[in-house]
Each structure stands twice: as C-alpha cells, then as structure tokens.
C-alpha cells in the first residue's frame, strides 16, 4: 500500500513536491504540480528542480530497500542527469529503480515524466545509506 510523505523537509515545504512510497514494485515516486515558481526564464521546468525530483525519488527508492516507509535516510554519492525534453506546467513525476548495489551502496536510475507521458529527464546515481549512529 502506498503512502505519501509531505512537508518532511524544508526543501519539500519550499518547493512543494510529494514523495509516494510503499509501492509493491519497490520504486518510490516523487511528484510536483508545476507552476510559475518552478519554471526558468524560458517558462519550462528549471533543471535544478528536475534534478532534485530525480534525486529525491532515487533516495526514497534506496530507503525502501531497508524500510517500506521510505524514511531511512540515503545520501547521494553521485548523480548524473540527462535532460531530454522541456518540462511544461502540469504534474511531473519521477520514479526511481534499483539497478544494482550491495548492503550500503545502491545504484539507482530514475525517470521524470510529464503527466502527458513526455520523458523530461533521466538520471543514474549511487546512493549510500546513512549509518544509524549518524542519526543520533
């Protein structure tokens, strides 16, 4: 059963994106309803926000490997983003997918799509689980 994580971090509150976790496929989703605050001077999705959505979906996907609630923190070690098409106003959704890794490092790819099905961007990255002692 999926559940949504809202307003957990300052960034989430500022930008307004939602993380959707708990899917049976083990993939977390991150979505955002784009408006003028999220667009660049060309009136399309700002690349930094696209990257943040891909990163957040990937990190939450990593978290779901150890916690179905998606709340165990994972940090980005590296992230490479490829921009495919402009993101127009409307809902965009990023989905992460585990592609490899071991106990502490996960290789995760992600795709960002517009609600009309247009592929906006893709990413590949390496994500690391935050050690429990670092959380205290």
Unreliably modeled segments: none
| CA-CA gap between termini | 29 Å
Q: Looking at the structure, what is the overall shape? A: globular
Relevant CATH superfamily: Hotdog Thioesterase
**String of helices and strands:** EHEEHEEEEH
C-alpha Rg, in Å?
A: 14 Å
Instruction: List how many beta strands DSSP finds.
Output: 7
* Largest sheet properties: 7 strands, antiparallel
CATH topology: Thiol Ester Dehydrase, Chain A
The CATH architecture assignment turns out to be: Roll
Helix count from the secondary structure assignment: 3
In helices, the fraction of residues equals: 10-25%
Mean pLDDT score? 91
For the record, what CATH class applies? Answer: Alpha Beta
Structure class: alpha+beta
Number of structural domains: 1
Strand order of the largest sheet: 1-2-3-5-6-7-4
How much of the sequence is in beta strands?
A: 35-45%
Structure write-up:
This protein is an alpha+beta fold. The protein has one domain (3-135): Hotdog Thioesterase (Thiol Ester Dehydrase, Chain A, Roll), CATH 3.10.129. Helices cover 20% and strands 41% of the residues. It is built from three helices and seven strands, in the order βαββαββββα. The protein has helices at residues 10-15, 47-63, 132-135, and strands spanning 3-5, 18-21, 29-34, 74-83, 90-101, 105-114, 119-129. Strands 1-2-3-5-6-7-4 form a seven-stranded antiparallel beta sheet, with helices on one face. The longest helix is centred in the middle third of the chain and has 17 residues, at 47-63. The protein is globular. The N and C termini lie far apart (29 Å). The mean pLDDT is 91.
